[in-house]
Amino acid sequence: MKLYDCLIAPNPRRVRIFLDEKGIEVETQEIDILVGENLKPDFLAVNPRGIVPVLELDDGTRIDEAAAIWRYFEETQPDPPLMGRDAREKALVESWERRADQDGMLSARDFVRNQVPVFVMRGHPGRATDPQIPDLIERGKNGMRAFHDLLETQLETSEFVACDRFSVADITALCAVDLGILGEFPGLDGYPAIRRWHDAVHARPSVEDWITNIQTALAGLPGSP
Ligand SMILES: N[C@@H](CCC(=O)N[C@@H](CS)C(=O)NCC(=O)O)C(=O)O
Predict the structure, then answer these.
(1) Residue 175 CB–ligand 1 contact under 6 Å
(2) Cβ(47) to ligand 1 under 6 A?
């Protein structure tokens, strides 16, 4: 079994945190999206969509999409449950995880991809022919602000994002909020409940210092100050 990973990318990060919480070790192959390794024929033969993460099973089956990879491991190793315990909790976790992905991650993606020089002509993940669209920066900001407002209200009365335990909803929300911190928008000022939750989640052994890792990687790119 092998995970096609990328240490600086937020979606593979969703899988790495999940695996660590479960105590599962999987061989990884690093695909550096900053230098476009995901767009080369070798990786396109693995995933024609040109995106990571991808899990390759021992029988050769390949599974992309972080949530589908989670599903595989939740079924094969249920403890600890990270996708909900009963019908109510599973539904709440899924609802909040999708909010975090659709409202948080995709807004952050609009915001980051359409302004960072390394993604010129790479406005859409996995493709090399999509120009950046500057208007999407503002739309991404609006989306991120709306997601933070929603999350703040939820975390005022809930220890974790979806229920009373850590779940995949926390993982995706964390990855979205950290992308916002990296892009210095909207930040955590004015969001005390998110800050409390963010500090607590960051203290978990499964959560690496991703922001420092990515800042180091970006600073090492040609043309960086
Ligand atoms: N919905 C997908 C999103 C995967 C995705 O967008 N991956 C990014 C890295 S975070 C990627 O592979 N980008 C390739 C690129 O930037 O060209 C998932 O949940 O796995």
Answers:
(1) no
(2) no
Query: Is 0.85 topped by the overall pTM?
Result: yes
> How confident is the model over 145-156, as pLDDT tens digits?
999 999 999 999
The Cα 70–Cα 77 span in angstroms is 10
**Closest alpha carbon to 16 in 3, 33, 31:** 3
pLDDT tens-place string over residues 59-116: 999 999 999 999 999 999 999 999 999 999 999 999 999 999 999 999 999 999 999 9
Atom of ligand 1 nearest to the CA of 127: 17
Which CATH number characterizes residue 11's domain?
3.40.30.10
174 lines ligand 1 (CB under 6 A): no
Within 10 A of 85 (CB to CB), how many other CB atoms are there? 14
Nearest CA to ligand 1 atom 1: 65
Predicted local distance difference test score (pLDDT) of residue 223: 61
Domain coverage including residue 144: 87-208
Q: 175 pLDDT exceeds 70?
A: yes
For residue 224, tell me if it sits in a domain. Answer: no
Distance 191 CA to ligand 1 centre (A): 28
CA atoms within 13 Å, Cβ hemisphere of 113:
24
Is any ligand 1 atom within 6 A of the Cβ of residue 179? no
Establish whether residue 94 lines the binding site of ligand 1, counting it when its CB lies within 6 angstroms of any ligand atom: no
DSSP state of 100: I
CATH number of the domain that residue 168 is part of: 1.20.1050.10
Q: How far is the CA of 6 from the centre of ligand 1 (A)?
A: 10
